[in-house]
Amino acid sequence: MTMIDTEQLTKTYNGRGGCRDITLQVPAGCIFGLLGPNGAGKSTFVKMLAGLHRPDAGRAAVLGLPLGRPEARRKLGYLPELFRFQDWLTAEEVLRFHGRLGGLSSRDTRSADFRRRARDTLELVGLSEAANRRVGGFSKGMQQRLGLAAALLLDPELVILDEPASALDPIGRHEIRVLLKRLKDKGVTVFLNTHLLEDVEALCDQAAFMYGGELLASGPLRELLGGDGDQGADGVNWRFRLGGWLPDAWSELSATAGRALSSELRLVESDDSGNVLVSTRVSDREQAGYLCALFIAGGLTLYESGPEPLSLEAWFLRMAQSRQGGIYR
Amino acid sequence: MSLYISATFKELTRKRVFLVTLILTGVFLLLFGIGLKEVTDIAAQESEASAKQLVDSMVFMILGLFFAQFLASFFVLFSTMGTVTGERESGLLLAVAARPFPRWKLYLAKWLGHAVWIAVYSSILFLAVVWTVHGITGLNLLAGDLVRGFALFLWMPLLLLTLTMLGSVYLPMLGNGICAALLYGLALFSGLVEGISSEGGVLPAMQKFTLLTGLLLPTDSVYRRSLYELMGGSDWAGLTSTYMGPFSIPSIPSNAFLLYSVVYAAVLLWLGCRAFSRKDL
Question: Of A49, A142, B143, B248, which has the most beta carbons under 10 Å away?
Fold first, then answer.
């Protein structure tokens, strides 16, 4: 099932900003990361999914239902980016309030079942000690956790999180990552809008990149980072996984290869069994093939050869700079 | 709805304006009581005619209720001017509006939540003034007059609430507060000017001006009709209010005008629900 399905979804502010023609599918059960620099239109897109913004054009379905339908919103948990809860409420009262807004009756939210659920949710986000404290005395990180608790309270099938780790310390961020993995294991689909690339790298199965209001790429993260590798005007980074490596052979091999290459061979990793990962920059596939022949002729076992996958950061910068007209190497 | 009524009450009681309003109300009622007692004692010592004492007590009632409606309006303006844009800017609305609760219901619930507590506050003000005047001067009011006057007195701040909430969908908090206060001030001012200018007879131009400002915001007209009903309608009100300068009621808003005020509020409320449902938060 597709949890989020948009087709040419557009929202601008008097013709400026926002996002245009966003066509995107988010399959069920995955963690999906939405990336892009500031002003890319990510928040506009997320707000449309959450029903806070009305699209100018295009079509969108959330949980198989058109945008804004209460039936879909009932199964949707949403954590806004810049939000605040009523200062005078306690954490438990906030959850009760959101339980009521989510469709539960006053009687339901006073039941022992609901209280247990609220306590469990607060425990899940690390706020069980603060259940009866007023939100006014909460730190930003605690408010963020409470926002997450409110989003998860009614067992949503889809969770949309807008910068969930902002305002959290490293421990809090780690806990959120663990929590999101746990949600995924439970079959919950998570849509993550974040600037934290390490979170996307560690958590997401799929990602999309937005820039200047347009969607530039989307798909499985492996495919986005794999592909043709870090390709630039002067070639591509290539890696080789080799066996039967002897440290003494390195200088000779390096010198032989160096004569054919514009850059040096780099030993990326090695182990005691003679397995190594070697990387270099090659001008084309023929040059990579020549190196493979060289390794085999040198008595090494070639296990793997291919373009070096990009780091997410490198991919992000390349995507952004390609739109700015710059060259990324 | 009950959820929002109690939430609005909690919200109101936590705002500083609530405390300020309570203090000002207490000070006003205390000073009004003391002043009224002093004047009544002096009148009794001078053995004024009972007809004169009756008219005087009605005059005090009008003055007391004038300031009471002023306080009620102050309370409405400052507690509701940021209902939508203020809450959007602070982020309070973001988590709430994403819930499966139709926006128009949310708007209506907020209106109702404010309306209940504004009505409670205005009732306290009205009854405190009437009870003080009755207790000190011995002025008796007919139950029917009291109920009609009371109902219209409560209607006035609810009209202002409806306008202020609609403004809060479009304008930033401060801008909306200024705009609503200016409109309210204009309506009040036109009523006062009409009162002053009526001493030599009602001026048609002035009547037109009052009618137009009344159409723009009917609060002052509804308030004046409330006084008229409270003072016993055509039997007494004319006698009392003719010589009160700015507080005179030279022209009485008709029943048709009251009906207009109901339609006015209904349309504004509908526009607010519609605008809030379409607003990007």
Answer: A49
Provide the Cα torsion A122, A126, A130, A134; round to 10°.
-70
Rounded to 10 degrees, the C-alpha dihedral B184/B187/B189/B192 comes to: -130
- For the stretch A164-201, what's the b/e string if a residue is b when 16 or more beta carbons lie within 10 angstroms of its beta carbon? bbebbeeebbebbbebbeebbeeebbbbbbbebbebbb
The number of C-beta contacts closer than 8 angstroms across A and B is 67
According to DSSP, the residues that pair with A24 across neighbouring strands are A6
CB atoms within 10 A of CB A64: 14
Which residue's structure tokens are 């809030």?
B276
Helix, strand, coil percentages, rounded to 5, for chain B: 85, 0, 15
**Shortest Cα distance from A154 to chain B (angstroms)?**
11
Chain B residues with CB-CB distance to A under 8 A? Answer: 2-3, 7, 10-11, 14, 90-92, 94-102, 278, 280-281
CA separation for the pair B252, B244 (Å, rounded): 15
B92, A86: Cβ pair inside 8 Å? yes
**Which residue in chain A has the smallest CA separation from B279?**
A53
Cβ distance A262 to A281 under 8 Å?
yes
CA-based nearest residue to B219, from B250, B259, B177, B188:
B188
Residue type, position A118, single letter: A
Angle, helices B16-45/B2-14, rounded to nearest 10 degrees: 80
Q: Which residues pair with A238 in a beta bridge?
A: A280, A307
Tens-of-pLDDT digits for all 329 residues of chain A? 889 999 999 999 988 888 999 999 999 989 999 988 888 889 999 999 998 999 999 999 999 888 878 888 888 999 998 888 888 888 998 999 889 888 888 888 888 899 999 999 999 888 888 888 988 888 888 888 899 999 999 889 999 999 888 777 888 788 888 888 888 888 899 999 988 888 888 888 899 988 888 888 888 887 777 655 555 666 788 889 999 888 777 777 777 777 777 777 888 888 888 898 888 888 888 888 988 998 898 888 999 998 877 777 777 777 777 766 543 33
pTM for the structure as a whole: 0.79
Name the pairing type of β-strands A235-243 and A301-307.
antiparallel
Helix (H) or strand (E) holding B261, with range, is: helix B255-278
The Cα-based distances of A82 to A164, A187, B81, B281 in angstroms read: 10, 27, 22, 11
Q: Give the number of C-alpha atoms closer than 13 A to the C-alpha of residue B191, restricted to the C-beta side.
A: 26
Of A319, A234, A317, the residue nearest A280 (C-alpha) = A234
The 3-state DSSP class for residue A45 equals helix
